[in-house]
Each structure stands twice: as C-alpha cells, then as structure tokens.
Amino acid sequence: IDRIACPWLIRRFVDPSAVFLFVPTSDVALVADRFGAVPFDIEEVFWSHRGELCTFDVMIEEFGLASEPMLRLARIVRGADTARPDLAPEVAGLLAASLGLSRMFVDDLKQLDAGMLLYDAFYRWCRDATDETHNWPSAKKGG
Predict the structure, then answer these.
(1) CA-to-CA distance for 26 and 42, rounded, in angstroms?
(2) What letter would DSSP give residue 124?
(3) What is the pLDDT of residue 6?
(4) For the whole model, what pTM was predicted?
(5) What DSSP state is assigned to residue 129?
(6) Is residue 55 within 8 Å of residue 2, measured between CB atoms?
(7) pLDDT mean values, one per 10 residues, the chain (143 residues)
(8) With helix as H, strand as E and coil as C, how does 50-78 read?
(9) What is the pLDDT of residue 59?
C-alpha cells in the first residue's frame, strides 16, 4: 500500500518529476547509495513506519501536508497498510483495489502508473465527496 501511496503523495504534492526505483529490500541501501536516492518504507530508514503510523502518515507529517482530506486518506491508507480495517469503512476497498493492481501488474512502475489514478480518486473522494451517497433505486415516483 505505502509503495504506491507514498510516490503518489510525493508526485502530487511535493515533486511532480520525482523518479522512483523499486528494488528488492536487500538491494535498497546499495541502490540508494549508487543513485543518491532516498529509501522509503523499509525498516531502519527515516521514511518508514513509526509506531502505529505507516510511511504515508510520516510523509504527510514531515512534509507539512496535513489537512482534513489528507488525514482522512491517511487513515484509510494506514488501515490498509497495517491490517486494521476498523480504522475506516473504506479500508477494505483500498486494500481490494491495491491487491487487484498487484495481480494485474508484475512491473512495479506500471503498477505505480495505474495506482496514481486510484489514489487521485480516493483523495478526491476524501476532499469533496464524503457526504455524497448513491441512492438506487431512485426514491422518485416513476423513477
């Protein structure tokens, strides 16, 4: 979850031209050193889980991006990333969509490209659609 959520956050709110490298955990330090990259979402690095917070939460805090919609999204991401579906009803949907993407794309960068739209949609829902419902069938007579 964090492997898509964090790059989405960075590209949308910090650096639109950020480049991401996905490598096996055992190679992260070597690749980060070779390319001057900043590792994230692995143990013992700055950009990682802290206590009950996932890496996405940490980035929101560290980059000063806290807002009501962003914190709502963070709760959903944290729930999906840390197996805590009780944090928000939408956790199951994000987890299902994320697992679906992981089955559709073997290539991490292709999965990231597809996941960008998913996170755009979740963020837009958090920002301006949480009060909207879908009522079917219509309550209108003859509708």
Answers:
(1) 10
(2) H
(3) 97
(4) 0.90
(5) T
(6) yes
(7) 96 97 92 94 91 97 98 98 97 98 96 97 96 74 56
(8) ECCECHHHHHHHHCCCCCHHHHHHHHHHH
(9) 97
What pLDDT shows up at residue 133? Answer: 84
Phi first, then psi: give them for residue 47, nearest 5 degrees. -90, 80
Phi, psi for residue 80 in degrees, rounded to 5: -70, -35
Q: Distances in Å between the alpha carbon of 52 and those of 21, 38, 81, 122, 127?
A: 26, 22, 11, 22, 24
1, 90 Cβ separation under 8 angstroms: no
DSSP secondary structure string, 73-113? HHHHHHHHHTT-GGG-TTHHHHHHHHHHHHHH-SSHHHHHH
DSSP letter, residue 117 = H
| Residues 49, 130: Cα–Cα separation, whole Å | 27
Contacts of 92 (CB under 8 A, 6+ apart): 85
The reported pLDDT for the residue numbered 62 is: 97
List residues bridging with 47 in a β-sheet: 40
What's CA 130's distance to the chain center, in Å?
Answer: 18
Start-to-end CA span in the chain (Å): 40
Q: Residue 35: CB partners within 8 Å, gap ≥ 6?
A: 21
